[in-house]
Design goal:
about 325 residues, TIM Barrel, binds zinc ion
Length: about 325
Amino acid sequence: MIQAVSQAESQPVTPERGPLNAFCVDLEEWFHSFGIRSRYNDPQTWDDAPSCVVADTEVLMRLLDDAGARGTFLTVGWVAKKHPDLIRRLAREGHEVGCHSYWHRLVFEMTPEEFDRDLADCLAVLRDLTGQPVDTYRAPGFSVKTEAFWCYPIMRRHGITTDISVVPAQRDHGGIANFPRDPFVLETSEGDIRCFPVSVMTILGRRIPFSGGGYMRLFPQSLIHRGFRENHAQGRPGMSYIHPREINPDQPRLERPPLWNAKESVKYLKYYINLGTTRRKLAAMLRTFRFGTVREVLSIAPIRGRYSLANGTLTHSA
Ligand SMILES: [Zn+2]
């Protein structure tokens, strides 16, 4: 399923002035969903599923090339094992490869022991394939909630020095409404971790994510750009994220839930909304603002504050 990049998408890059923003791809298959019952919920069935991830990721790589940018690809270990050449190519072409767990399970549904093993398995595959340090982590479904803060010392013990798992707003799976919005240092018993929260904007006094995933598919381009400008005006880099399937309107479909199941039906609708227009919006965003890897952004962005994990809660350090 090769998708050519159209002429309109490859127009010259004319970025606005503003800080470098992070561009992230959560590198997983089209069926790695949460909250939708499907024949692929069980990892034992994954080998039987059709695959779109390589072709869709190649489209994202071409869009980044056109914008003269590199991104951070948070990779599911199982995907890396199935498609090693894709991961080698990402590393070779200067993208950052980060970790998105091996089996794509929510952190707050795992025990610390399960999390430890899953993280170790994923890092072993990615470090072997790239031959590079893999030290950035994003939890599946942004599932580092307050009750899962036990994961941070485990991450640090495995060499993770940057975490981008938290959306500082209310969400379905993860999200912490009062989490800091700026990059900060988190002190753990195993050493420091830099936390770079996903971008949110303020609408009617509420924090709303705008720059990735379903929000990017749902929101008009003007609102997305407004969100970046709000963060830049406050001296903060933005962070955008997307899944490869979100620019592919021809992907296979999961089974539609029965209509009487309103919750899953809404989830299903959200999972597939605006697949046909997201690629155009993404290309415009990449042309309008400046993007790089998480590592590049954190090497120059202001780090605001130090926090510690006293008694399992985030506490501002002196
Ligand atoms: Zn994911």
